[in-house]
């Protein structure tokens, strides 16, 4: 008999403690992913109380989505609204993060402000959208105020103009997420070795120079993470525009996002077409994430 | 060694806990299901003599607002309310499952429940569900509603009802599947103050002259605009009047067809929007829509049936026009109907005789029905009773300043024709109004808006084709 029992191998505990993650990943990620792909090959929907299908139709669902030309439109809408919201959001977060982590500013009541900027994220997106819908309706308070102070002659129909709707959606997303991004960026900034800042200051660098030459380059990994998570979140934009436009994506579906479009197919429980659309979104998300990743990490090798 | 055992134990419990958490639900569900079955069986066995026959102890009612609930609470003999979502009739518990109809939520919920009906425990089975004219056919033609005759309600019992209320609920085999206590012919409801101000009189006969047909309606809209009133609150107000007077169904042979009458609505509404004679292009039921219920809303008229006057126009709120009796009613340019709630017995109900009795009491008992008219200003589905009530001042509507509009409704109910209804109506009507909003707002040409309607319809009903 070998005395192998004396040597305690801890390897297996690693695997055992991984079981919960693997099981949850399999049940809630892998199985839905593959069943979505599987479903996309079938004609399967409900008309009234009649169930039609599932009949195997091969790639017909994919062909339908490509030929009706809706996908690029809604992808464009989604990206426009995401970028409109993301640019101010990241700028604001960088600025706030830089201020909060700068010891020379000696900001008071930091905890209070950090809490306050995170608060909008705690409100349910749907409640937030409802609030904005009421605020900006034709007879809502914003219009009343603007008319009463004489800025407008008659109420501006915020919900009936392309850019006001898109702008509102972007503004709400920005407002909801800048706090979250700020916290993430702050964590990144605080991870930077303070001696680098001190060395720069000793060398006579200005605050702007420090920010651009030291903070930003060293913040890159966190920035990439923020970009990619925000991009994926942006592509999945749904609740805010859905509630704000009552599911229509009006005017002329210019604020209809990909997921809202997907949701339209679920009215008739059209799992085939919905599945095909989801597969396209999976591919698009993958490609865009890869582009962001390559774009932001590629320079390191030079 | 001890550590190893402890570690193994801990990780085992973790994994096991997770697995039981997954499987646990099914187990408990099964066991509660079983015990519920057992209870139900016990209960029915024990109380068999008390309850009529071997009927269930729970009456599940699916509906989309409080209207039917308040009708039952106020008028069904023996109903006592326990709390907001349940009540009791004798020793049967009544459970209200109320899901708002917005975004199709009511039908989605009902559909799921109906499809599970066969496997549901006796106490969970739907006993009564309500449907609206817009989608009644969906449930009438499917095998989910019970023929009224099977409930023991004879043709003689329902002879006094308006024929259209029965036509719409008759399936392709000629079987009547649901009954309604109300009739929903619509009228034009006008703001008396605005009528006096602009037209010089608030007498229904005089106002009728100003809205006798759509041309005069448009001329009146100009006059209203000149004095600062909107003719209607939203662009969709007049929609039903046009969509009820169509020459064919929305869907014919699987193809969606836009009727000329509906195109007339588009044309007229666009004219009115461009001339700023309409309050807004918002949806019905929105804040912008209900603004006109108050004097400051400066809105001349709404189109609606009896239930709207009493139930929807803020009659219970201080300061509203309805509260002060400031509305009048006249026939308007064209007759139409709106809504109407039908009571259907769900296939597989375990409370047949109770369901039948509720239907009978609310839709055929003349005393109860007249009580509904007096108390709730509804127009009930009983021809002789309504014709009698039309001549009596005691049935005047308070929101209408003491006017008795029942004669008008009687006329309208006679003319109601629902032969152009089809099961796609609700989706088509909704999507059409949504698409046209873009045209009215100037964000699209008419053709673009029609294209958008077509693509929305195909998304909703993949089996349909568009022109």
Verbal overview:
The complex is a heterodimer of chains A (302) and B (467). Chain A has twelve helices and two strands; from the N terminus they run αββααααααααααα. In chain A, strand 1 and strand 2 form a beta hairpin. In chain A, strands 1-2 form a two-stranded antiparallel sheet. Chain A is flat. Chain A is mainly alpha-helical. With 467 residues, chain B is α/β, with parallel strands linked by helices. Helices cover 45% and strands 15% of the residues of chain B. Chain B has helices spanning 2-47, 67-75, 105-115, 136-141, 163-167, 192-199, 204-210, 214-226, 239-243, 260-274, 287-290, 306-312, 352-364, 366-376, 383-389, 406-415, 425-440, 446-460; strands at residues 58-63, 79-83, 86-89, 92-98, 126-132, 178-180, 185-191, 230-234, 251-252, 255-256, 278-280, 299-305, 327-330, 336-337, 341-345, 465-466. In chain B, the strands form three sheets. A seven-stranded mixed β-sheet of chain B has the order 2-3-4-1-5-15-6, with helices on both faces. In chain B, strands 7, 8, 11, 12, 13 and 14 form a six-stranded mixed β-sheet that branches. A three-stranded mixed β-sheet of chain B has the order 9-10-16, with helices on one face. The relative contact order of chain B is 0.14. The model of chain B is unreliable at 20-52 (pLDDT under 50).
A few lines on this structure:
Helices cover 68% and strands 4% of the residues of chain A. With 302 residues, chain A is mainly alpha-helical. Chain A has a two-stranded antiparallel sheet with strand order 1-2.
Sheet-strand content of chain A, in percent, reads: under 5%
Our count of helices of chain B gives: 18
Q: Termini distance of chain B?
A: 78 Å
Average of the residue pLDDT scores of chain A: 88
Number of beta strands of chain A: 2
Overall shape of chain A: it is: flat
Say what oligomer this is. heterodimer
Q: Point out poorly predicted stretches of chain A.
A: none
Low-confidence stretches of chain B: 20-52
Give the overall pLDDT of chain B as a whole number. Answer: 84
- Distinct helical segment count of chain A: 12
Query: Major sheet of chain A: size, sense and barrel closure?
Result: 2 strands, antiparallel
Using DSSP, what is the number of strands of chain B?
16
What is the overall silhouette of chain B? globular
> Numbering strands along the chain, what is their spatial order in the largest sheet of chain B?
2-3-4-1-5-15-6
Radius of gyration of chain A using CA atoms only = 25 Å
What's the helical proportion of residues of chain A?
Answer: 55-70%
The ordered H/E elements of chain A are: HEEHHHHHHHHHHH
Structural class of chain B comes to: alpha/beta
Give the neighbour order of strands across the main sheet of chain A. 1-2
């Amino acid at each position: 008999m070998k005395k192998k029992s004396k040597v305690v191998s801890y390897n297996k505990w690693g695997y055992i403690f991984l079981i919960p993650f693997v099981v949850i990943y399999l049940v809630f990620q892998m199985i839905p992913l593959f069943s979505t792909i599987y479903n996309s090959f079938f004609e399967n929907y409900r008309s009234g109380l009649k169930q039609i299908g599932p009949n195997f139709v091969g790639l017909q669902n994919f062909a339908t989505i490509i030929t009706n030309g809706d996908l690029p439109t809604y992808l464009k809408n989604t990206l426009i609204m995401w970028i409109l919201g993301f640019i101010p959001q990241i700028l604001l977060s960088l600025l706030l993060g830089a201020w909060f982590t700068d010891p020379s500013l000696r900001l008071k009541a930091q905890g209070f402000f950090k809490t306050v900027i995170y608060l909008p994220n705690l409100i349910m997106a749907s409640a937030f959208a409802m609030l904005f819908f009421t605020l900006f309706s034709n007879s809502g308070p914003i219009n009343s105020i603007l008319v009463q102070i004489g800025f407008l002659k008659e109420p501006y129909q915020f919900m009936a103009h392309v850019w006001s709707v898109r702008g509102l959606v972007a503004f709400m997303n920005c407002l909801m997420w800048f706090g979250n991004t700020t916290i993430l960026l702050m964590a990144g900034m605080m991870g930077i070795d303070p001696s680098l800042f001190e060395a720069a200051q000793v060398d006579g660098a200005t605050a702007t120079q420090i920010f651009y030459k030291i903070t930003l380059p060293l913040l890159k990994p966190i920035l990439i993470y923020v970009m990619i998570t925000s991009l994926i979140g942006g592509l999945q934009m749904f609740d805010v525009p859905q509630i704000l436009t009552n599911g229509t994506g009006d005017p002329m579906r210019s604020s209809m996002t990909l997921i809202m479009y997907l949701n339209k197919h679920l009215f008739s429980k059209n799992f085939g077409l919905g599945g095909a659309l989801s597969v396209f979104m999976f591919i698009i998300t993958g490609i865009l994430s890869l582009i962001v990743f390559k774009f932001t990490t590629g320079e390191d090798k030079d | 060694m001890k550590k190893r055992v402890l570690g193994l134990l801990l990780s085992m419990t973790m994994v096991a806990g997770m697995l039981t958490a997954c499987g646990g639900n099914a187990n408990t569900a099964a066991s509660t299901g079983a015990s519920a079955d057992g209870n139900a069986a016990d209960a029915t066995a024990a109380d068999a003599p008390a309850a009529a026959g071997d009927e269930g102890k729970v009456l599940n009612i699916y509906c989309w607002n409080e209207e039917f609930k308040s009708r039952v609470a106020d008028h069904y003999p023996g109903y006592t309310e326990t709390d907001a979502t349940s009540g009791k009739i004798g020793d049967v518990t009544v459970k209200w499952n109320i899901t708002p109809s917005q975004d199709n939520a009511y039908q989605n919920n009902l559909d799921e429940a109906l499809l599970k009906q066969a496997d549901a425990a006796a106490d969970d089975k739907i006993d009564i569900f309500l449907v609206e004219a817009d989608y009644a056919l969906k449930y009438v033609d499917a095998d989910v509603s019970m023929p009224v005759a099977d409930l023991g309600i004879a043709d003689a019992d329902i002879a006094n009802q308006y024929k259209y209320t029965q036509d719409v609920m008759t399936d392709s085999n000629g079987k009547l599947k649901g009954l309604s206590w109300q009739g929903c012919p619509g009228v034009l409801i006008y703001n008396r103050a605005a009528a006096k101000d602009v037209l010089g009189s608030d007498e229904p006969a005089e106002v009728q002259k100003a809205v006798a047909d759509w041309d005069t309606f448009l001329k009146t809209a100009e006059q209203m605009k000149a004095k600062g009133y909107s003719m209607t609150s939203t662009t969709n107000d007049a929609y039903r009047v046009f969509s009820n007077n169509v020459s064919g169904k929305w869907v014919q042979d699987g193809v969606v067809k836009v009727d000329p009458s509906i195109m007339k609505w588009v044309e007229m509404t666009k004219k009115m929007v461009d001339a700023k004679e309409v309050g807004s292009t918002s949806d019905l039921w929105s804040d912008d829509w209900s603004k006109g219920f108050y004097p400051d809303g400066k809105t001349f008229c709404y189109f609606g049936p009896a239930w709207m006057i009493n139930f929807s126009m803020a009659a219970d709120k201080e300061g509203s026009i309805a509260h002060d009796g400031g509305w009048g009613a006249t026939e308007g340019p064209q007759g139409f109907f709106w809504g109407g709630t039908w009571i259907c017995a769900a296939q597989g109900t375990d409370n047949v005789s109770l369901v039948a009795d509720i239907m009978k009491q609310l839709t055929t008992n003349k005393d109860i029905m007249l009580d509904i008219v007096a108390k709730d200003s509804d127009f009930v589905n009983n021809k002789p009773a309504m014709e009698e009530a039309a001549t009596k001042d005691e049935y005047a509507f308070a929101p209408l300043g003491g006017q008795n509009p029942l004669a008008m409704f009687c006329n309208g109910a006679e003319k109601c024709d629902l032969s152009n209804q089809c099961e796609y109506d609700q989706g088509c009507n909704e999507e059409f109004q949504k698409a046209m909003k873009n045209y009215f707002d100037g964000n699209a040409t008419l053709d673009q808006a029609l294209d958008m309607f077509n693509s929305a319809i195909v998304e909703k009903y993949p089996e349909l084709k568009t022109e």
